[in-house]
């Protein structure tokens, strides 16, 4: 099966530097095949016959800690889930929205309904978000770097580990 691993905090802001060739070798050392990385920020596609996503996440997390000395969150999605996430974007039908301002925050698990309710209706300038299951779709026309609706906001408010990718990267991951 083809999976996408999303590592949070690799090669961001000069921290947790890992060469992609070394990361690919690490994944191959775990027995994964057809390992491909995309850009320098911890996006890896790979294949394995293993199907326990929680175990895969733990194995990769442990290997990164052992090999590189970094404790980084790991989120794994089957490639088909990426396709579903892309097709379900509630902002796409709006022709007024520029896709370069679209982002997706992927939650490690479903947040408690009460936590979702507490942020329902939050507004921040013209920025918008919508939560569908374990996916937060974000439209930030002022730029992701300036929006209040960033990864930290959703982790704190929803109490769930998360990682965020821009729309271009998410679509590219589908092609890996």
- At the first level of CATH, the class of the largest domain is Alpha Beta
How big a fraction of the residues is strand?
15-25%
Domains, number = 2
Radius of gyration: 16 Å
What characterizes the major β-sheet? 4 strands, antiparallel
CATH topology (fold) name of the largest domain: Alpha-Beta Plaits
Number of strands: 8
Mean pLDDT: 92
**Strand sequence of the main sheet, in spatial order?**
2-3-1-4
Shape: globular
CATH architecture of the largest domain: 2-Layer Sandwich
- Outline the low-pLDDT stretches: none
Helix content: 25-40%
Compact summary:
The protein has 176 residues and is an alpha+beta fold. It has six helices and eight strands.
What can you see in these coordinates?
34% of the residues lie in helices and 24% in strands. By secondary structure, it is α+β, with helices and mostly antiparallel strands. It folds into two domains: 2-81, Alpha-Beta Plaits (2-Layer Sandwich), CATH 3.30.70.1280; 88-175, 2-Layer Sandwich (Alpha-Beta Plaits), CATH 3.30.70. The strands form two sheets. A four-stranded antiparallel β-sheet has the order 2-3-1-4, with helices on both faces. The chain starts with a strand and ends with a helix.
Features:
176 residues, Alpha-Beta Plaits, globular, 6 helices, 8 strands, four-stranded antiparallel beta sheet, alpha+beta, 34% helix
Q: Secondary-structure blueprint of this entry?
A:
Elements: E1 2-7, H1 20-29, E2 33-38, E3 43-47, H2 53-68, E4 74-78, H3 79-87, E5 102-107, H4 113-119, E6 128-132, E7 135-139, H5 151-158, E8 162-166, H6 167-175
Helix pairs in contact: 3-6
């Amino acid at each position: 099966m083809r999976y996408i691993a999303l590592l949070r905090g690799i090669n961001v802001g000069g921290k947790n530097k890992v060469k992609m060739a070394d990361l690919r070798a690490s994944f191959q050392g775990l027995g994964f095949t057809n390992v491909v990385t995309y850009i320098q920020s911890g996006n890896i596609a790979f294949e394995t016959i293993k199907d326990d996503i929680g175990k895969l996440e733990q194995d990769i997390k442990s290997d990164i800690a052992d090999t590189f000395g970094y404790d980084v969150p790991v989120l794994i999605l089957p490639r088909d889930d990426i396709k579903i996430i892309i097709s379900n974007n509630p902002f796409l039908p709006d022709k007024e929205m520029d896709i370069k301002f679209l982002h997706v925050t992927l939650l490690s698990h479903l947040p408690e309904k009460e936590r979702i309710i507490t942020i329902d209706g939050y507004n921040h300038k013209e920025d918008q978000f919508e939560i569908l299951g374990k996916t937060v779709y974000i439209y930030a026309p002022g730029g992701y770097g300036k929006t209040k609706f960033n990864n930290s906001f959703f982790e704190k408010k929803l109490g769930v580990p998360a990682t965020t990718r821009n729309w271009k990267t998410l679509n590219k991951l589908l092609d890996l």
